Amino acid sequence: MNESGAPKPPRAFSWFPGHMRKALRRLEETLALADGVLMVLDARIPASSRQPELEELLRRKGKEALLVLNKADLAEKAQTDRWLAFLRQEGHRVAAMRAVTGRGPGPLENPLERLRQAVHAQRRKRGLLPRDPRLVVVGIPNVGKSSLLNRLAGASRAKTGAKPGVTRGNQWVAVPGKWQILDSPGILYPRIEGEEILTSLAATSCVSLDAIPLERAGGLLLERLIRLGHPPSGMQARDSEAGPEALLGEMACLKSFLLNGQEPDLPRTARWLLQAFARGELGAITLEAAP
Ligand SMILES: Nc1nc2c(ncn2[C@@H]2O[C@H](COP(=O)(O)OP(=O)(O)OP(=O)(O)O)[C@@H](O)[C@H]2O)c(=O)[nH]1
Ligand SMILES: [Mg+2]
Q: Which of 70, 226, 238, 287 is most buried, by CB atoms within 10 Å?
């Protein structure tokens, strides 16, 4: 209760520690060197994987980012197309991508080539020799920044991993005759305002499962999957009235995740569900519909 006697709103599950501010400041310095910025989003959660502080910084610096809807192979094609249209309408240049396979820029070829021409023209005007454009890859943890860098470099040059926070320090990778690319560490924390965003981020491994209310996020994901018409196999759409915890209990029984052979093991079930979704084992599913 606060002074007026009204119940306090639930505390948003959010953190914005000092090192985030430090990361933004460091990124600000890096951006001064950058000719182009690749902002990587997860195509399954395009809204929650945007980073308002980062976008604000780019606006302030007059840097236009090329948006990359990555992991498009794990999202629904029709939804991704709607997101592309929406983001273009917002004035962004944007492409869908599967960074983890293939080589070279793929759908980023044209925008990157235009950037290259612009950088050369600008330098010529100033009487300078041409040089390869410097690209900076940014985004929240685990969206595929290092994978994208590797794809653009045509080789495994940066370490990748299924957990958030794999990249630790800044690393420049030169692709002679093409680009120089900076893989910034994935320490631009997402802004977590409310359980819905938290669930999106947990389901895509953008936040560590050890840092969140696991059962709540798992239950909410299950509820959302059912609502979206993608119940995990064995679950049925009619269960959507049951509430997240009951649904998770049902899922536990279905999977035989039981404590002492009888009690549903909710944390284990939640972890399994969130991780299975993150890996795409429940199918290609977009969690956040385009506005
Ligand atoms: N299916 C699929 N998986 C991808 C794609 N891009 C990246 N991944 C996987 O997602 C996980 C994270 O990829 P990284 O490239 O390490 O992501 P990051 O943004 O550099 O992560 P941090 O450095 O931890 O912030 C890895 O397991 C990748 O294999 C994609 O387009 N499709
Ligand atoms: Mg990385």
A: 70
